[in-house]
Design goal:
The structure is a homodimer of 187-residue chains. With 187 residues, chain A is mainly alpha-helical. Helix content of chain A is 71%, strand content 0%. Chain A starts with 5 loop residues before the first helix and ends with a helix. The model of chain A has no long low-confidence stretch (mean pLDDT 92). The structure holds a DNA duplex (30 and 30 nucleotides).
DNA sequence: CTAAACCGAATGAATGTTCAATCGGTTTAG
DNA sequence: CTAAACCGATTGAACATTCATTCGGTTTAG
């Protein structure tokens, strides 16, 4: 956990908010600068370019997500409880940080991220599903597929809530997690 | 089905390709113009602004998707077959038109589309799920939720294939559809 | 005292949009 | 039948604006 200067934090935070509001384009540095109460030069003191700012912003928030997953996995829970825990905790995180979710969605589908081959098979989530398959709790499906489907479903569910008219009741959220669980767990 | 002039078609097509490659931003009109073999003014003959071009491009491709769904629903198939048909056909469409998928993802998460309240409860897919619930084929969950989850899952699955390392075998695709079906169908 | 953090006006390249002019075809008038 | 009038599509150079980035200077921290 590195220390991040206040100015850098302000730049990160402002960029996140503004990108959610005005989009990936439509958020010039000048706007970030004004919103963050920082001079233009300061941005270039911390980042080589706008592109690098955005990439670092992504990496930073990605690590926040990973930490959430790790925390759930560290708890002493049944396999099913862990699955529900990951789903609900990431969902809650997205609800509390809609700007992160929107930024992720934009980033992932942008040329910053496309053309990159990801090692989907690595990471805690893939391991978690691998373990479930070996235990017989989960259907025999490539773990990396299960990982991407799960993360996609969580994001979709959060957007369901965020995008408005469809605010989810607690019971409905449980129902949705149950859909995926029923789908991937061995009968 | 309206007639679209060749130039307009070329502009649409170029914009789609270039946005996939260079992103939503990073695709100036000048680039579209060059790629389409058209003069700058021509764009503004057909569209009031770049924004409107993008919005029309979205509406046009959205209608293509809807047509695919309608075609499946019009066939004489069992309920489950229709569900699989919609999933597979939309998946195939995305695979054949990755530029549409990427464009959609960018558009949906951009300020063009955010802040809009959608009538998720309308449309053929919601009706389809409403019908399934009444028939007892589908769990009792708000149809609009089922709709969004399904469309999200299809997009995720297509991206799984597109983004590279995870090319799906026919059998795996079936497996994935089965996950969602198992999850939403009444046991 | 020094180096790092920070500032913000200045810069120049890039971008969305405009508009006067051209072109090919179709209608109209004689 | 013919030529003039007219039309919408198309062009691309020109314009104003916006943007990322730079840089010379000031403040701050150790």
């Amino acid at each position: 956990m590195e220390k991040i200067s206040d100015k850098k934090k302000a730049i990160f935070s402002s960029a996140l908010d503004l990108i959610k509001e005005h989009g990936f384009h439509g958020t010039p540095i000048s706007m970030v600068v004004k919103h963050a109460g920082v001079a233009a030069g300061t941005v270039y003191h911390y980042f080589d370019s706008k592109d690098e700012l955005i990439c670092e912003l992504y990496a930073y928030n990605r690590s926040r997500l990973i930490r959430i997953i790790e925390e759930v996995l560290a708890e002493n829970l049944s396999y099913k409880q862990k699955f529900f825990g990951i789903y609900i905790n990431l969902y809650d995180f997205y609800i509390d940080n809609t700007n992160v979710l929107i930024f992720f969605e934009q980033f992932v589908n942008s040329p910053y991220n496309l053309n990159k081959n990801y090692a989907h098979s690595q990471g805690q989530l893939s391991d978690f599903f691998r373990e479930g398959i070996e235990n017989g709790a989960i259907k025999t499906i490539r773990p990396e597929i299960l990982k991407v489907l799960t993360l996609g479903s969580i994001a979709t569910t959060a957007k369901l809530h965020i995008f408005g008219n469809l605010s989810l009741r607690e019971s409905e959220l449980k129902q949705i997690v149950e859909i995926l669980w029923d789908g991937i767990s061995s009968t």
